[in-house]
Design a protein that fits this description.
Layout lengths: L3 H8 L5 H16 L5 H29 L19 H26 L4 H14 L13 H22 L4 H24 L1 H4 L7 H5 L1 H21 L14 H8 L1 H4 L8 H27 L11
Helix pairs in contact: 2-3, 2-6, 2-7, 2-13, 3-4, 3-5, 3-6, 4-5, 5-6, 6-7, 7-10, 7-13, 10-11, 11-13
């Protein structure tokens, strides 16, 4: 088995905000409905985290044996960099999928949310076939779509559903926003890898769009969740106007992208985008809980 340093390299813990953010928002929504339960919240975070880590190892394994990572410009991968055998990396991926499955089954039995069994199977399949299998969807410009589905809708709404037993229009809006920000993480990663993905025939959305359009889309992915989240303030959540503080932060984060930076210069943007998503989730969650205690009058109540 790998030492701790190699495990941390492969796990890519900097991507965990993509797992924490939707669970945080889903839990805050459940709290606002007075349905908060701590154990289901922890189990939901465990499922999302193990899936994220398992997907990272699976991606490392699949891209490594295909040779996609041979000339990458980002951090060295375990398989592509010959730091661990492909079999060991595969075992690490499968062990995390197993842990995600066990946590998910516990959550389903605990909350009797049997419908989520199909969602769990779909999530593990999506994590594997992102770069695994004979026709990985990550090589067909569909990666961001699946990130939106599973780290936006599935994780946020699933967390809420296991505690409250229902979802709301507000939760759909916020799940969309969280999913878009999670997709921005993948987008900036793929923008960095365009020069090496093209010869490897890895057709990501960034490759398909090209440098200029991909960078514009990344900027839109940062701005849109802030704009739509702020708009919710009109409908009974005025505290969400605090999200506007993220606009100058997003402008600062995106500076290298707007200035045409390439290669390793974009790694700091990836890290900052991860923290941006986490901060967004913290502000949204705090706003939901604040509004629960200090409700504002509104023409429309989205949580109804």
């Amino acid at each position: 088995m790998p030492n701790l340093h190699l495990w941390l390299m492969g796990a890519r813990l900097r991507t965990l905000p993509a797992a924490l953010a939707p669970v945080m928002v889903g839990t805050a929504l459940a709290y606002s409905e007075q349905k908060f339960q701590i154990l289901p919240s922890l189990l939901a975070f465990s499922v999302a985290s193990f899936l994220q880590i398992g997907c990272n190892f699976a991606n490392d394994y699949s891209d490594g044996i295909r040779g996609t990572d041979q000339f990458r410009t980002g951090p060295t991968r375990l398989t592509g960099g010959n730091l661990l055998s492909p079999q060991t990396v595969l075992k690490l991926a499968l062990s995390n999928f197993l842990l995600a499955s066990l946590a998910g089954l516990w959550l389903i039995f605990l909350t009797e949310s049997w419908i989520l069994l199909l969602l769990g199977v779909g999530a593990i399949a999506a994590a594997w076939f992102y770069t695994g299998g004979s026709k990985p969807y990550g090589y067909m410009a569909l990666g961001e779509v699946f990130v939106l589905l599973f780290f936006g809708y599935a994780a946020t709404l699933g967390t809420l559903y296991t505690q409250a037993g229902s979802i709301s229009f507000l939760s759909l809006v916020l799940a969309t926003n969280i999913g878009i920000l999670a997709s921005a993480l993948l987008m900036i990663n793929n923008i960095r890898d365009i020069p090496t993905d093209i010869p490897a025939q890895k057709i990501t959305l960034a490759v398909k769009l090209g440098q200029v359009k991909a960078r514009r889309l990344f900027l839109a992915m940062l701005v849109l969740p802030v704009v739509t989240g702020t708009a919710v303030g009109v409908f009974g959540y005025p505290v969400f106007f605090a999200l506007l503080v993220l606009l100058p932060l997003g402008w600062h984060i995106s500076a290298p992208v707007r200035q045409g930076a390439t290669g390793i210069s974009l790694i700091k943007v990836l890290k900052a985008t991860s923290l941006f998503e986490l901060l967004y989730a913290i502000l949204i969650s705090a706003g939901i809980i604040y509004t629960h205690y200090f409700p504002a009058s509104a023409l429309i109540t989205l949580a109804a």
